[in-house]
Write a structure and sequence with these properties.
9 strands; 40% helix; BirA Bifunctional Protein, domain 2; 2 domains; alpha+beta; aminoacyl-trna synthetase; 339 residues; binds 3,4-dihydroxyphenylalanine
Length: 339
């Protein structure tokens, strides 16, 4: 019997060393220590023993039970910590790693400026209208009082599709289209792309953007033109902004004026940013020429109006002190991320 007990202990320990999961371990506990287990079966035979043998075997049986129990518990702990270790290894989430930053896009500086200009004019009751970029000679030049061979055309050489169809050189074409389609009062701005056959440099590009403005009503004067454009400039460049209206000539306005902004760098003294002028030219404007009104079926004796054309690149470059126009088209993230 002593031998039997020792065999049970030995085989229990051997089986335990092979166990690799908790479920099998529990089965072993039942097999060796359970009510119908191997140890119990032997103890049931204790009655057959002599009075001297009984306490000896009893003691041994208790020791074997204790040993097996201890071995079971130890193996159980071992399996548990192994399982935990595996679980941690399998888990790839490392909360100490730095997070992945999501890059958020941002508006291009030209779009930011355009949106602000639109906001100012929408606030004054203007509509935003668009016109075609592929335009006829009529709308781009002829109807703007620039007949064929007019010298003013020289400054706006462009890409011709044929003799009468071209890429528009100015958004002023939309003035004519609007006056043909709408009755006064008219208050519109028209942003869009324009084209000229210019070589690319720091201040020129064959494609750039303008914002055209047109107001036609009874009793519109140069004072309205000045007030409107001054307000726009203050909104774009700040309340302290100073502008000046300088006499100029455009075939489709009379009188005409260019609008300059006092150099924000030197405040009118002259520096390298304003080419020593103290002022930076921003846009062309004027009172719509009576002949242009008449061509569009608007009676110049009853109605008058003003118009202007702003270079979007130019006012954007001024606002952000950008000294090379090409930066606006290169889509270099190092540049664009600064806005
Ligand atoms: N079209 C002119 C240009 O491209 C800008 C301009 C001047 C537009 C006077 C106008 C205007 O509407 O009245 O340089």
């Amino acid at each position: 019997m002593k031998e039997q007990l020792q065999n049970i202990e030995a085989s229990a320990k051997e089986e335990l060393s092979k166990v690799s999961d908790i479920k099998t371990l529990e089965d072993l506990r039942v097999r060796f220590l359970g009510k119908k287990g191997e140890l119990t079966a032997i103890l049931k035979q204790m009655g057959k023993l002599s009075a001297e043998e009984r306490p000896v075997i009893g003691q041994l049986a208790n020791k074997v039970r204790g040993d097996i129990e201890a071995a079971l518990t130890a193996r159980r702990d071992e399996l548990k910590s192994k399982a935990e270790e595996m679980r941690l290894k399998a888990e790839t989430l490392d909360v100490t790693l730095p997070g992945k930053k999501q890059k958020i896009g941002r508006a291009h500086p030209l779009d930011v400026t355009l949106e602000q200009v639109e906001e100012v004019f929408l606030g004054m009751g203007f509509d935003i209208v668009e016109g075609p970029e592929v335009e006829t000679d009529h709308y781009c030049f002829e109807a703007l009082n620039m007949p064929k061979h007019h010298p003013a055309r020289d400054t706006q050489d462009t890409f011709y599709i044929n003799e009468n169809v071209l890429l528009r050189t100015q958004t002023s074409s939309v003035q004519i289209r609007t006056m043909e389609n709408r009755k006064p009062p008219i208050r519109i701005i028209s942003p869009g792309r324009v084209y000229r056959s210019d070589a690319v440099d720091a201040t020129h590009s064959p494609l750039f953007h303008q914002i055209e403005g047109l107001v036609i009503d009874k009793g519109i004067t140069m004072a309205d033109l000045k007030g409107t454009l001054e307000l726009l400039m203050k909104r774009l460049y700040g309340e302290e902004t100073q502008v000046r209206f300088r006499p100029h000539h455009f075939p489709y306005t009379e009188p005409s004026a260019e609008v300059d902004l006092m150099c924000f760098n030197c405040h009118g003294k002259g520096c390298s940013m304003c080419k020593q002028e103290g002022w930076v030219e921003l846009l062309g404007s004027g009172m719509v020429h009576p002949k242009v009104l008449e061509e569009c079926g608007i009676d110049p004796e009853v109605y008058s109006g003003f118009a202007f054309g702003i270079g979007l690149e130019r006012i954007t470059m001024g606002r952000y002190s950008i000294n090379d126009m090409r930066l606006l088209y290169e889509n270099d993230m190092r540049f664009l991320e600064q806005f």
